[in-house]
Amino acid sequence: MSKMIFVNLPVADVAKSTAFYEAIGFVKDETICKGPEAAMVRWSDDINFMLLSHDHFAQFAPKPMADSHATSPVLFALSFDSRADVDAFVEKAIAAGAKEGHEPEDMGFMYSRAFEDPDGFGFGPMWMDVEAAVAAMNQPQAEAA
Questions:
Q1: Three-state SS for 10?
Q2: pLDDT at 112 > cutoff 60
Q3: What's the predicted TM-score (pTM) here?
Q4: Which of 16, 43, 90, 139 is the most buried (most CB within 10 A)?
Q5: Residue 32 CA: distances (Å) to CA of 24, 39, 108
Q6: Domain of 136?
Q7: What are phi and psi of 84, to 5 degrees?
Q8: 57 with 78, same domain?
Q9: How many CB atoms sit inside 10 A of residue 96's CB?
Q10: Helices 83-95, 14-23: inter-axial angle, 10-degree rounding
């Protein structure tokens, strides 16, 4: 079995959250969970999001849940093949009910945007030219005057 990640998110309404994630390109997968308390959506073959009702999530995590509308418990940085793909993804998310997080940031070698899903979880879709990013980070810093 390949290495996989299952991101467990407590959501207010499993059906509403599932519809949101499907609208932005995730694929619903009922292989290991079905029903009103949990849904699984796939980002890729190895990255899955488990959308769990608050009560169901509490069965796995004994600590109090963070209020993701008031705090930043996590930021998911999802990579894309181009700036245009980042823009298209964010526009889909906004059309599906997400809240835009900030204006686009373009560093030349990296382009990113941000949004919050309906439950307040943060996403940072981004495109990066890895070789250019490594080169930029390895350049000597200018001496302070």
A1: strand
A2: yes
A3: 0.87
A4: 90
A5: 21, 9, 41
A6: 72-145
A7: -60, -40
A8: no
A9: 17
A10: 150
